[in-house]
Every structure is written in C-alpha cells, then in structure tokens.
Design a protein that fits this description.
alpha/beta, six-stranded parallel sheet, six-stranded antiparallel beta barrel, about 35% helix, about 25% strand
Length: about 300
C-alpha cells in the first residue's frame, strides 16, 4: 500500500473517503467495493483519510474516543489490499471548502476518476450537501460518483449497519465479544508495562499494569475479561481487570491489570498488547481480601476454559 499526502504521480484511481476508525467490517466491505470497481476499469484503488479526527480541528477541546490510533489504522488498512492511502491533513482551509471544491482537489491533485460514497458519508463545508449534489458535481468535473452499500450483520437485532459509533458503544458497555464480531477481529489495546502496587502477588495472581500508548484510545468498561496477551514475540492467555479495585480501596484511580497465564518473566517497561475476548463479570466489591482471592480463582478457571 502506497501512503502519502502529495501524490502528483498517482495513477488514476477509484477512491472512497472516511476517517475509518477501527477499519471494521463495514469499512472493509466498502473498500472491497472500491477494489472491485477499480479492477473492473483498470484503475488503482485508494482510500482518502485523515491522521486526526476532523472534529479536533474544528473544536480544540474535543477528545475523540478512538478504536484505533493513526498507526494502527494504517496497518489495518494495508490488510484490506487497497493500493493507495491518501493522508490528508484536515485544516481549517480544507474544512471551508465546498463539496465541489473538495472534489476538484481530489481530481486534479490526486487523480481520482471515480468516488464510491459510503451510505452515511457527507463532506464539504458544514457537510450540508448530499449524494445527489455529489453526482451533479461529478458530472461537471468528470468524476464518476457511485453509492456504496451498507454492511449489516446477518443476525443484527435491529438491522443497524456496522459503524464505528456502534462499536464504541459496545466497548463502553463491556460487550467486547459483539464488538469483535463488528470489527472482524478482537479489539486490542497496546501499551507499556508500568509499576503497580503488587497486590496481585499477595493474592496469588501477579499482574502486569498497562499504560496505554495513546490517551484517546478507548478502554472498555470496568470488569474482568478473558484476553490474549502478546509480549516478547509470543501470545498467552490472560485474566484482565479494568477498574478501581473497590475491595482494596483504590479510590478513583482506574487501573488496567493483567495476570498472564503460565508466565513468570519480568516485563516491566516492555510493550504489551491485549486482545479482548469476552467480559466474564463486572467489577464489584467483596467483603474481604480472602473472598476476592476465591473469586479470582474461579475467574481464572472460567477464563482458562474459555481460551
């Protein structure tokens, strides 16, 4: 996959536009339509996206809840097989362009011949124009405009299409299993192992405390999770707790602590990736530390059986 923001030597392409947070199954379905259209006409396939959320430019105090960091997004886009990723810096000038002016940029600077528009996507100043406007401008500019089909899960209870917003809601509710179904892969969190209070050692379940690499990446709801843990080039099963450890009076400090099964090495300050499989239970307060230890023993058995 070619990556760039200035592509004067780009071959003519079929493209789509979006933020692509999570690069979920709906995004992949859209990119597949772009690739099919490009192959049918002997053109390059491309996605146009942004390194930061456009709303951050328009609202300086806006903090997005991200499914993927910019680097993770690019890695996932590469897996789709798309030929080119055009990274646009979303500036106030770009935000001021009308839809037609933006389409002129796409045609003359990036050599886009055909644009596949996502079912819910709008662009241009204030996002005030819609698909019929894009078709009209496309005729004037020589850009073929095509609508994209939405991707829906066959067993979705309400028939709603898969979207980044839906996945964020699932993660914040702790439903990491359904989030994985929508994403097409288990949701993951990258970070660095930092020092903790070593309470887990006293309970018989030593833990690695994770500091996420990106402050805006979503941390799922508090609770106990079955996870896969990648460290030192290998993958292990793990029991993860996210929360404030109410039994231990941890106050308002939220921690991310994972007990890695069958692992006893020191990985302090090492990188680590957590892939979320399922939430086992909510976080709750126990009457004593002994009762907490007994519950952890049951949780570990449940998670080992699941993994």
């Amino acid at each position: 996959m070619r990556i760039g923001d200035i592509c004067s030597n780009n071959p003519p392409s079929v493209a789509t536009i979006g933020f692509f947070d999570g690069v979920h199954r709906g995004h992949r379905f859209l990119v597949d339509q772009v690739r099919h259209e490009a192959a049918a006409h002997g053109l390059e396939s491309a996605v146009v996206t942004f390194p930061v959320h456009p709303r951050q430019v328009l609202q300086s105090d806006y903090r997005p809840k991200l499914l993927t960091t910019p680097q993770e997004k690019l890695a996932l886009l590469e897996q789709t097989g798309v030929g080119t990723c055009i990274l646009l810096d979303f500036t106030l000038h770009l935000a001021s362009l009308s839809a037609r002016e933006f389409m002129e940029v796409l045609k003359h600077r990036y050599h886009i011949r055909s644009l596949v528009i996502g079912y819910d996507h709008r662009f241009g100043h204030n996002r005030s124009e819609g698909f019929d406007d894009y078709v009209r401008y496309g005729r004037e500019l020589g850009i073929d405009i095509r609508p994209a089909e939405a991707f829906r899960l066959p067993d979705a209870p309400d028939g709603a299409p898969v979207s980044s917003s839906l996945i964020r809601r699932l993660l914040l509710a702790g439903d990491v299993a359904q989030a994985a179904t929508c994403l097409g892969y288990p949701y993951f969190l990258n970070g660095t192992v930092v020092s903790g209070r070593r309470i887990g050692h006293q309970l018989g379940y030593p833990t690695a405390n994770l500091q996420p690499d990106h402050p805006d990446k979503i941390v799922p709801a508090n609770g106990v999770y079955a996870v896969r843990v990648e460290t030192e080039g290998r993958t292990y099963g793990g029991m993860l707790n996210i929360g404030r450890r109410p039994t231990l009076d941890n106050g308002d400090d939220r921690s991310i602590e994972v007990h890695i099964f069958d692992f006893d090495r020191n990985i302090y300050q090492e990188p680590l990736r957590l892939s979320f499989i399922r939430r086992i239970r909510e976080e709750r307060r126990f009457a004593s530390v002994d009762e907490l230890a007994e519950q952890l023993h049951r949780d570990a058995a449940t998670i080992r059986a699941l993994l």
